[in-house]
Amino acid sequence: MTLRQLLxxxxxxxxxxxxxxxxxxGKQPPPCTREEATEEILRxxxxxxxxxxxxxxxxxxxxxxxxxxxxxALHKVKQGEAVYExxxxxxxxxxxxWPLLAGLMWVAARCNGCLNVLDFGGSLxxxxxxxxxxxxxxxxxxxxxxxxxxxVEVGKQAFQDEYLKFYETTNTCLAETxxxxxxxxxxxxxxxxPHKVLIELLSTSCDHxxxxxxxxxxxxxxxxxxxxxxxxxxxxxxxCWVFSIDRFRAALNREWEIIAEFESLDxxxxxxxxxxxxLCAIRRGKAS
Length: 288
Hints:
Shape: globular
Strand content: 25-35%
Number of strands: 15
């Protein structure tokens, strides 16, 4: 069965992005349900010529506060006190990205029931913990996260185990293991040079690619905006790319076959008509 056929069989409910209002920065509220979540609290604005221009219009964010809140939230998930965490906020029910999970299972099926993941910018393991119920059924799992130094330090101290590993650089990860699938979930749009980073990542040993939670539009060029996060989550605004879907596809099509595209959970106001999407792809010559 192909990945496209597998995706067609899965028709789950897709829930809108939502969060419960927080009682002050740094305090973790109780888990919320889908019905309790509040929609459209994030937004994009502007059209900036350079990254520095967008930075000058951003307030910045307290990385330590965000890291602390993420750590506390994922501790609750790991200990079974909450079911799911996304962007530091806890939920009573997992909001699966079913196509991403189908892609992971597809890769595992092609690798004798084993899954070795390079999760670039994967925080403290949000995507791993989101899908661990399904991952437990595989013959073997190694989930490698490449992140900033502080995240890696906390990750190794609080979350690393035989399945979940943390690295400061891609090269350090590749020196220890050979991942088969590259996961980029909600990360490319926040990089100053996303296309350069993507080219570097696609040159690794990974022959499968899964992208999720990434904003696209129909314009001919990428658009640089500023993303605003309400203070009830954490006080922040920072540059965010909205990628040209045609340019993105063209860059991949040189060496990669896009197997399936899908809509992501995220959906919030933007100065242009933006679709948050994901895709699954395989390196050309590896599909048989």
